[in-house]
Each structure stands twice: as C-alpha cells, then as structure tokens.
Amino acid sequence: MEYKISPSLMCMSLIDIRQQLEVLNRRADMLHIDIMDGHYVKNITLSPFFIEQIRPHTPLVLDVHMMVENPSDFIEPIARAGADFICPHAETINRDAFRIINQIRSLGKKVGVVLNPATPVEYIQHYIHLLDKITVMTVDPGYAGQPFIPEMLGKIAQLRDLKQQKGYRYLIEIDGSCNLRTYQDLMSAGAEVLIVGSSGLFTLDSDLDIAWDKMLDQMRQARHAA
Predict the structure, then answer these.
(1) Which of 16, 29, 34, 217 is catalytic?
(2) Are 162 and 121 in contact (CB under 8 A)?
C-alpha cells in the first residue's frame, strides 16, 4: 500500500517558506494547514489569509484542520482562500453536523472530520458515510511535538475495519507524532495519510530535500516491518 504524506505547514520555517514550499511541491501528496482560534485550543497558528497567500504557489491539495470553537464562522473564508479539504473537529459540529457537511459540499470542497483522542468513533456514526476523510488525533490538539498516545491504534483499526465492511470512501489520516517510532504501528493499524511535522520531517535535517529522503527511508523500513 502507498501512503499519502502531508507535511504540516505550522512546523515549517516561515523564514524559508518559499524555498521549502518548492521542495514540498515536488515531493508531498498534500499540505496540512492548522487553523487555531486561541479558544478551542490555546494556541494560534495559521489563518485563511495564509491559505490565500500560498494557494497560487502550490498545485497540491490543501487540507485544512480547523481547531476552532465555531467552524461555521471559518468555512466560507477558508473555502474562498483555496482549501480543498475542510475538516472541523467532530466535537464542535455535532449539534449541526449535517448542516455543516452540506455547507462544505455546497462550496465544492471535500469534507473531513477530526477526532480528539478521547472521542470515540461512535460519536460520528450517523454521518460517517458522508465523509471524505477522518483524521485521528494521536496527541491532544493544540501543540506540535507531543508524545504519541498508543491507545489510538485501536481507533485507527476500527475505522479501517468499518471502511472495509461498509464500503465507506473516507481516507484514514493520522495527526500527531508520525515518525520513526510510530510508522510501523500506524501502518499496521490502517493509516492511509500521515501528517508529518517536527519529529517526522522538519527536524531531520536543515536541508528539506535531505530531510525528506531520510523520512522516506524511515517509512520504507517501517513498511517492510509492518
């Protein structure tokens, strides 16, 4: 199985953004963009304006992860800015999940949801068949560089089994501590998209091309062992 690789742009060097984006355009499958409002999580990172600024400079799929209290306030600006996937947290939309899913679809975008570590798959059972992607948080949301939560491997396997049994179309994406220590377990559990950040890519070498080659070598070793 081939795995999609989605670098997290909050972990890149914003000083070297043009140079690093040129490397990612050649090598990545998609780009992961975190939007945080300082309320749902304490941190504040990227924004719809950031999406608008990089959209003309990359042909890659832009996957937007919304860590915000009120997703409906952000969906249209994010769509207009050029996102391809719009992915709110399930915990923030269950009071109006179908309305939000329909809103994202009406804007011509793909729909994802994100599950926090403590949120079970059953929380999204009534609309799981409508989703293009499900992101499993393997760390608590809000900050880069946190330790992996191994209990999430069972959740990933549950989503893999449901997808196979029901014929669902969603991609299974992993967000949090995707690196040499976790690749083998994630691949065995059923991960399909790996979001790579500080530990998985950007700190492997100051030259991003060399860092990418090191990451691929680690993934090949994990794939052979899985």
Answers:
(1) 34
(2) yes
